Amino acid sequence: MSKTEANSSQPETNDAGSAPLPPLTPEQIEELKTRAAKADENWERLLRTTADFDNFKKRAAREKIEAAQYASFAMLQKVLPVLDNFEMALAAAQNAQGDKLAGLQSGVQMIQQQLKNVLVETGLEEIDASGQPFDPNFHEAVSEQESTEIPEGKVLQQLRKGYKFKDRLLRPATVIVAKSPAVAA
Fold first, then answer.
1. How many CB atoms lie within 10 A of CB 111?
2. Which has more confidence, 173 or 22?
3. 3-state per-residue secondary structure call for the chain
4. Per residue in 14-28, pLDDT tens?
5. Cβ(155)–Cβ(134) under 8 Å?
6. Which helix (H) or strand (E) holds 13?
């Protein structure tokens, strides 16, 4: 008897190798086949879901990069007409004399207001520091100056406007802070 024949004539044993397993009935074999088919189906579904999820992650990462690259696109579209108006004003300034100069000044003021409106629409907010208490979160003090009219610790003069973008500080206002006059001894 060959070794293969000897193995096939012996009863099957469980994984532990201790007791022989009884032969499977046709119903049990059919149930195992059904379960194996269901396991294969679930495995295929898992592979497809994993691939779909990987594709989703790649697409989301790509969209995030594109959004960052083109975040300023809409704002730039709004600023371009303002730039065009400034260029026309500069061209008009070269030929302006007398009464036309007042018209040019008025036109430049309108362009400035147009630009401010565009920036406000995007979330930009001016920080008005004049006469306000000094706040290091929104103001940058460049010096102190004695004053009898303005109380100590308040902004005496704003040198450069500050700006917030939505709820974040974009640039602090540059200010001179009032201090009490020194008492002569």
1. 17
2. 173
3. CCHHHHHHHCCCECCCCCCECCCCCHHHHHHHHHHHHHHHHHHHHHHHHHHHHHHHHHHHHHHHHHHHHCCCHHHHHHHHHHHHHHHHHHHHHHHCCCHHHHHHHHHHHHHHHHHHHHHHHCCEEEECCCCCECCCCCEEEEEEEECCCCCCCEEEEEEECEEEECCEEEECEEEEEEECCCCCC
4. 555 667 788 889 999
5. yes
6. none
Q: How far apart are CA 177 and CA 25, in angstroms?
A: 95
DSSP state, residue 1: -
CA distance 63 to 58: 9
What domains can you pick out in the chain, each with its CATH number? 124-185 (2.30.22.10)
At position 98, the amino acid (one-letter code) is: G
Which residue shows structure tokens 């018209």?
103
Question: Residues 6 or more apart from 165 whose CB is under 8 A from it?
Answer: 123, 124, 125
Token output for 96:
């302006």
Structure tokens at 42: 């679930």
pLDDT in tens, 46-96: 999 999 999 999 999 999 988 877 777 777 778 878 878 888 887 777 776
Quickly count: other Cβ atoms within 10 Å of residue 89's Cβ: 16
- Residue in the block written with tokens 């929104």: 138
